[in-house]
Amino acid sequence: MDLYSWVKALHVISIIAWMAAILYLPRLFVYHVAAETGSVQSETFKVMERRLLKAIMTPSMIVAWATGLWMATQIDAFSQGWFHAKLTLVVIMSAVHGYLAGCTRKFANDANTKTARFYRILNEVPTLLMIFIVILVIVKPF
Prior knowledge:
This protein is mainly alpha-helical. The protein has one domain. The protein is built from five helices and no strands. Helix 1 packs parallel to helix 3. The radius of gyration is 17 Å and the shape is elongated.
């Protein structure tokens, strides 16, 4: 068996899970903003947001980082320009993840101050990052 291929498969699976969660969480926020504080709907969103973050989003990010860094050492990626750019974008994606985790805490404490429009726009950031990351990994333009 080729260990690199298995790690790469795990990496792709974790990226898919991370991206699904990081794209869904802001969408939940869009709907949560409209829910009345203390309502059953609001409390349901809190549970959904917490579970998404803790059970899918954060574990998949950790696996993506661990497998990605392992693979990078195996192919000497740290000496390649495309990888530096990709790593920068993944750090930014991780910062978005952290920001969304903070938003989740604010919603949990009924302390959100942002609008649905804000979360709709924020929802586009991971999409743009993903597009550029995939281009860097597949095309390796530099």
